[in-house]
Specification:
mainly alpha; Nucleotidyltransferase, domain 5; 2 domains; two-stranded antiparallel sheet; 8 helices; 4 strands; globular
């Protein structure tokens, strides 16, 4: 799966019997074309696995102008966005506890999951809109309407509210490794030393 970390939308997925740089390169190419970002190629963050660093994948990244980014060596969980996505996937009630019967069954299940995740799943990290809504830029209007409804409800029944309502402002920035946090952490380390 390829996920856009800004919107959390799954922008590409495939299921194959093996992992390979060739399959990864084809998936990346399809996702770039489907998302129409050939003229503004993204950064692709991946783990340090062989398929992600294989020659075919590296050649495809270069050909598409995609900037590669890799996990730190021997750190399997440095991408919380992917970790969260796969946890959501594996904890769905219909996820098979004993594996899939066939590759076709797995593909059908993943297709259904991707549709649900992108268009029905109200994602808490993006203020309870779907990844598809955020990806299409619909989140600002949806959140503004929610804020309005909550404000009206507070005015109607102020005794039912103990404080402010949720923050309904769209999330503006999303970082995999925020440079501001790194600077803050360095400052904190220097202050405590």
């Amino acid at each position: 799966m390829i996920v856009d970390i800004f919107s959390r939308k799954i922008v590409g997925w495939e299921v194959h019997p093996v992992e390979s740089a060739e399959f990864g390169a084809k998936l990346l190419h399809k996702a770039i074309l489907a998302e129409g970002c050939l003229l503004e190629p993204p950064v692709l963050h991946a783990d340090n696995g062989g398929p992600q660093k294989g020659f075919t994948m590296k050649a495809k990244l270069e050909a598409l102008g995609v900037t590669p980014s890799y996990s730190r060596p021997r750190v399997s969980n440095d991408n919380p966005f992917s970790e969260s996505l796969f946890r959501t996937c594996k904890y769905r009630p219909e996820y098979p506890t004993h594996g899939f019967d066939s590759i076709d069954t797995a593909r059908k299940w993943v297709r259904k999951f991707v549709c649900w995740y992108n268009e029905e799943h109200l994602h808490s990290a993006i203020r309870f809109v779907t990844p598809g809504q955020r990806h299409r830029g619909e989140d600002a209007n949806i959140l503004a309407n929610r804020h309005k409804v909550y404000r009206q409800a507070q005015q109607k029944q102020p005794n039912r509210w103990s404080g402010k309502s949720r923050n309904w402002q769209p999330v503006q920035e999303v970082w995999l490794n925020c440079p501001h946090e790194a600077e803050t952490n360095v400052d904190q380390i220097l202050k405590t030393a």
